[in-house]
Amino acid sequence: QVQLVESGGGLVQPGGSLRLACAASGLTFSSYAMSWYRQAPGKERELVASIISAGRTTTYKESVKGRFTISRDNAKNTVYLQMSGLKPEDTAVYYCKAAREVSYWGKGTLVTVSS
C-alpha cells in the first residue's frame, strides 16, 4: 500500500522559513518524479515544484523561484520543500505527489503565513 505523509507545516510570520518533508512508503521511490502542490482556500490546486527521479532537474512555479527549493533523498524515500521568504500568499495546504504511470497523493500539511 502506497503512503505519502507530509510534515513540517505550521504557522510562520512573513519572511520566515519552513521545511516540509514527504515520506513515501510502498513504492520504488527513486523511480518516481516527486512534486509539491498547494491549494489555498477557494482556489484550485497548483503545482509549486517538481524534481525528477534522478534529482538533477527541478522546476518551480514562477512566484516561488529563488525562495523555495525542492530536494529528495532517495535513501530515505523522502522529498523536501525548503521555503524561505514566506509571504501571506503562500498560505495553503501543501501536498506531495509521486508520479510515474500512476500518481499518488499525500493528505497535505497546512502552511499559514501570518503576523
The total count of helices amounts to 0
- Low confidence ranges: none
Number of strands: 11
Along the chain, the helix and strand elements come as EEEEEEEEEEE
Which percent band covers the strand fraction? over 45%
Principal-axes geometry comes out as: globular
Structural class: mainly beta
Q: Average pLDDT value?
A: 96
Name the quaternary structure.
single chain
How would you portray this structure in words?
- The chain is 0% helix and 52% strand.
- It has 115 residues and is an all-beta fold.
- The chain has no helices and eleven strands.
- Strands 2, 4, 5, 6, 9, 10 and 11 form a seven-stranded mixed β-sheet that branches.
Quick take:
With about 120 residues, the chain is mainly β.
Topology:
Layout: E1 3-7, E2 10-12, E3 18-25, E4 33-39, E5 46-51, E6 58-60, E7 68-73, E8 78-83, E9 92-99, E10 103-105, E11 109-113
